[in-house]
Amino acid sequence: MSESVRDVSPPLAPPGTSPTEVLAPHPRRHAVFVVVAFALLMFSLDQTSVSTALTTLGADLGADLAWTGWTVTACAAGQILALPLGGWLGDRFGRRRVFLVAVAAFSLLSLCSAVTTDIGQLIGCRFAQGVAGGVMIPAATGIVAHHYGRERDRALALFTCVFPFGAIAGPLLGGVILTVWSWHGIFLVNVPIGLLLVVAGSLLLSEPPRRRPERVDVAGIALIMATLVSAMVAITLLGSLGRGPLAPVLAALAGAVAVGAGWAFLRHARTHADAVVPMRLLRGRGLGIMNVTNVLFGTAIIGFSALLPLYAQTRYALLPLAAGVLLTARAVGTILTSTVAVALLRRTGHRPLLLVGMGVIVVGLVLAAVPPIGTSPTVWLSVAAGLCGMGVGLAGPAANNAGMHLVPEDVTAVTGLRVMFRQTGGIAAVSVATAALSASGSPGIAGGIVFGVLATLLTGAAVAASRIPNRRGRW
Predict the structure, then answer these.
(1) How many angstroms separate the CA atoms of 239 and 250, rounded?
(2) What pTM does this model have?
(3) Count of Cβ atoms closer than 10 Å to residue 317 Cβ
(4) Please, which pLDDT band fits residue 70 given cuts at 50, 70 and 90?
(5) Range 207-231 average pLDDT
(6) Same domain, yes or no: 87 and 229
(7) Pair 52, 115 in one domain
(8) Are residues 239 and 359 in the same domain?
(9) Residue 457: Cβ within 10 Å count
């Protein structure tokens, strides 16, 4: 991320204030954390609920699976686009104001998503929702870091515990709504939550000190989006090669654009000191390994969460509600182990927790990929999802701190990069998988192969992560 989205902690000291006073936790910090946590919960509800509805969306809107998957990936792409803008807007207008506006916009866009009538409209609304969520995250990180002061490491690590609550409620809520109503209601649940958050945030949040906003790297952001979107189009078209003579030509053209834009982006990062993703945060001091780890980590955990309900429905003919319960098992596993991981971080350091957690996720992915042995598909997949969740709970807080402690003066920038790389991995996983399933004559078997591939990629990530410098205590 650019310089404009970095260094939210320690906060800048007002004149006459000692560093100790600046780092003291704010009296309302816990209430502030609740407000910010519920905003992240709303985001998690939205993502996991939509994952349970991919087959229903395709049938209702007349779209094949390759394009229906864009309802997940378009949101992630919008989030990546908005992360650097969120930091700049927070510096320019204040993180409190930006956070509240982002929450309000996300709620309004959820309402717009609920009333769409074709897949193109829905993809556009989902992209805009991702932008609102991406703006929200840097502001939320800065607000929590400011209010918790010297306890910021634990507070930020606890963000890992917030998303699983949405992962519990989202699939169940999505499954119930799909059973008794329609997919439109999945988006409507965000509206009352968002309105309450705006009111509560207006009353409770205080404004962190601002940094002078610097120029936004518009060219770098445009190159990132050109790379992501053209790659998504190319992958989607590859899943439709047999549906028209122009599909191979268009897929090759989109692929060429993706390669060219990616090369231009790397060149831009090397030659511009204020690039949206500066080269100093891409390599050196263990950051290069951590960035690669985050891409593969996101490929596995986001890909698994987005595809598991679809896999359960296509391979084992489970109903949407039963498929949603599987993500609940994953979320319960995450909650059970994430609080333990947060408590152990200062004692063990992040590397042991990261490696053990990734190993547990690999076991869960392998179990999901193979047929059930001696039990029903629901129980078998629930065990696999629970193991994946337990692994995420162990590895998540560790991965969050692994990059931030390397450059503590760039907490927000590293946070944004972590989210960007994980979402990029998730976009790749969902795009490739939905295209493969759409083109396959046996989508269920293809889904099992996808999970096997994800397990292999995460094993490689664990090997790379074993070289990350370990650190105990506070950072």
Answers:
(1) 12
(2) 0.71
(3) 11
(4) confident
(5) 75
(6) no
(7) yes
(8) no
(9) 20
The string of pLDDT tens digits covering residues 317-331 is 887 777 777 877 887
Averaged pLDDT score across all residues of the chain = 78
Map residue 93 onto helix, strand or coil: helix
Range of 260's domain?
A: 218-271
Asked if residue 160 lies in contact with residue 389, where contact means CB atoms within 8 angstroms, the answer is: no
Has residue 74 got a pLDDT over 80? Answer: yes
Asked whether residue 391 falls in the same domain as residue 362, the answer is yes
**In terms of residues, how long is the chain?**
475
Task: Say how many C-beta atoms besides its own lie within 10 A of residue 372's C-beta.
Answer: 15
Reduced to 3 states, what is the DSSP secondary structure of residue 384?
helix
DSSP, res 240: T
pLDDT band at 425 (very low <50, low <70, confident <90, very high): confident
**What CA–CA distances, in Å, run from 354 to 294, 390, 397, 471, 473?**
11, 12, 8, 12, 16
Contacts for 76 with CB less than 8 Å, ≥ 6 apart: 130, 302, 423, 426, 427, 430
Question: Are residues 419 and 384 part of one domain?
Answer: yes
Q: What are 123's two structure tokens?
A: 């993809």
**Residue 273, Cβ density class (10 Å: 0-12 exposed, 13-18 middle, ≥19 buried):** exposed
- Split into its structural domains, the chain has a count of 2
- Tell me what percent of the residues of the chain surpass a pLDDT of 90: 12
